């Protein structure tokens, strides 16, 4: 019933969709709709299944995804949403091309595409963890079922339907996780301190339980990833005005972090109770062992919708990049662009399904952090400078900033050095940007 409700909602909203509706919701999104798109794409498998999985294994360290995502939305709203919307463009790549030329834009596009693809894989891992305890079939069949669900979700209407579905999805998810919190608290006799008594303070009750470097890297990857990912910026471009874009991002920043805390509580509760299960199945286990069958089915379906919706949003962002920035420039797009967008989504979804089937034992949040870091390392500094100080960074140095950021992040693990790949990549990108700014100041001086 829950899945059918969201399917009918998307179908009704997506009637008569055209290409701009499909990619940008007709540039008519309200504050609620902008927030719905942002949260719909951010809050998925990593924020639910992945957060409970990591909390069961390591505790409060699992908060970095939703905390960092909230901070990223805050920065987006305060500094970047309004100027990006005022540009009237469709993609981050178009913005960078306008500021620095096509070379920098292409590097940024591929950084975004590679990073986003990894995040889609993470959603498949989360979806498989949810389906595994329900559907008694092999991993490849599960991936096929999940692929078809994502395709049905997004083909109903693209961003036009995605914004409305995202709003309902977040309301539903808040209700589900809060209900899980109340049920677990009641079973503890309303004594939440029992959880703290049964678990060691480290790693379970420290944001840096996995190490300071790993924690900061995780949080930083979310902040820069939010600012450099097509689907999140697509939410800004879809808004009805710059002010609407700003307020929508700020609302998302307020709503995201508490969701993570609710998920962390579930993981900690299960671990403190002595339950011995595969961490990836922790959320499914809680739902099916603490609720009557009918209610458990509805809750399970609601969680599955969040994962499907996030995968759909990320795939839509990738398709928009590939079509608008690589295959058909925006100025030459016509009726064929809509079908090409859908074809690219097919390629993305089935490619991610195949890779996820081979890496099913992975920690979901680790894939998500890697994804966000790759997106940010090749885009962050040129984008920020282009928005806040347009004209100051020469195109040649913007290209080097993007190229060094992406390549350093990709190949840093081969060096064996202790610095996290994201920090190495951002450092290389920042250095190139600083040299460019310095050279430009000398030239003008």
Automatic annotation (TrEMBL):
Regions that span the bilayer: 37-56, 62-86, 107-134, 140-159, 166-185, 205-228, 249-270, 290-318, 339-361, 367-385, 397-415, 421-439
Keywords, sorted A to Z: Membrane, Transmembrane, Transmembrane helix, Transport
InterPro entries in the cross-refs: Na/Glc_symporter_sf, Na/solute_symporter, Sodium:Solute_Symporter
PROSITE patterns to which the protein is assigned, alphabetical: NA_SOLUT_SYMP_3 (PS50283)
Location of the protein in the cell: Membrane
Main location group: membrane
Membrane-topology descriptor: Multi-pass membrane protein
GO molecular function (one): transmembrane transporter activity
Assigned GO CC terms: plasma membrane
Record-linked PANTHER family: SODIUM-SOLUTE SYMPORTER-RELATED, SODIUM/PROLINE SYMPORTER-RELATED
Similarity annotation: Belongs to the sodium:solute symporter (SSF) (TC 2.A.21) family.
Name assigned to this protein: Na+/solute symporter
Source species: Thermovirga lienii (strain ATCC BAA-1197 / DSM 17291 / Cas60314)
